[in-house]
Design brief:
The structure holds two protein chains of two kinds.
Chain A lengths: L4 E3 L2 E4 L5 E6 L6 E8 L3 E9 L2 E5 L6 E5 L5 E5 L8 E8 L9 E2 L3 E5 L1
Chain B lengths: L2 E3 L4 E5 L4 E3 L2 E3 L5 E8 L6 E7 L7 E2 L2 E6 L4 E6 L8 E9 L6 E2 L3 E6 L1
The chains are: A mainly beta, B mainly beta.
Chain lengths: 114, 114
């Protein structure tokens, strides 16, 4: 079974631009969660999508948004990029959401904002 | 709200020896799950082991075991017979059973010496 696939692996953008990151979950998984990892703030939850609906949202500004398609693939968008948005963005998929549900992560997209 | 604390920023261990990585947590949720992930320098988060809050026995997965002490709110990871490939960042995480949002600790960098 293929794992979680994130594209692209690396991105360089300039301040003010917008960016879209993509995540293809493990086949059969309907939940996709996004996390931001920075040296200063560590790993922080951005949002979760389940069956095309946002189910949970972390404490991030509205510039961060996402969506999920009917095939469970998810995209994350960041508008009006700021230097502080430079981070590793990790996507995780799981079959549902309760109990011992394991989230499996992709390799991440490393975003650099110049 | 949930909180995870990992007090060891970095640790060294001799190859073939066992090592314990500490994790304490705080939560008001009645049922929850505890997880350990490994993050090599490549960035991908690799799931290692899971412990449910109502599990009577400590979880084990190959060379990994989780020393779960509910009254002390600790969930330490024990790696037996360390290998050079175990050198990586290790993150303790938790989530409520009703939900899919992982809260991570700050991580411990483990370095295995030959």
């Amino acid at each position: 079974k293929a794992g979680v696939t994130q594209t692209p692996r690396y991105l360089i953008k300039t301040r003010g631009q917008q960016v879209t990151l993509s995540c293809s979950p493990i086949s059969g998984h309907r939940s996709v969660s996004w996390y931001q990892q920075t040296p200063g703030q560590g790993l922080q939850f951005l949002f979760e999508y389940f069956s095309e609906t946002q189910r949970n949202k972390g404490n991030f500004p509205g510039r961060f948004s996402g969506r999920q398609f009917s095939n469970s693939r998810s995209e994350m968008n960041v508008s009006t990029l700021e230097l502080g948005d430079s981070a590793l963005y990790l996507c995780a998929s799981s079959s549902s959401g309760g109990g011992g549900n394991i989230q499996y992560f992709g390799a991440g997209t490393r975003l650099s904002v110049l | 709200a949930q909180k995870i604390t990992q007090t060891q920023p970095g640790m060294f261990v001799q190859e073939k020896e066992a090592v314990t990585l500490d994790c304490t947590y705080d939560t008001s949720d009645p049922s929850y799950g505890l997880f350990w992930y490994k993050q090599p320098s490549s960035g991908e988060m690799i799931f290692l082991i899971y412990q449910g809050s109502y599990d009577q026995q400590n979880a084990t997965e190959g060379r990994y075991s989780l020393n779960f002490q509910k009254a002390r709110k600790s969930a330490n990871l024990v790696i037996s017979a360390s290998q050079l490939g175990d050198s990586a960042m290790y993150f303790c995480a938790m989530k409520p059973n009703a939900g899919n949002m992982l809260t991570f600790g700050g991580g411990t960098r483990l370095m295995v010496k030959p």
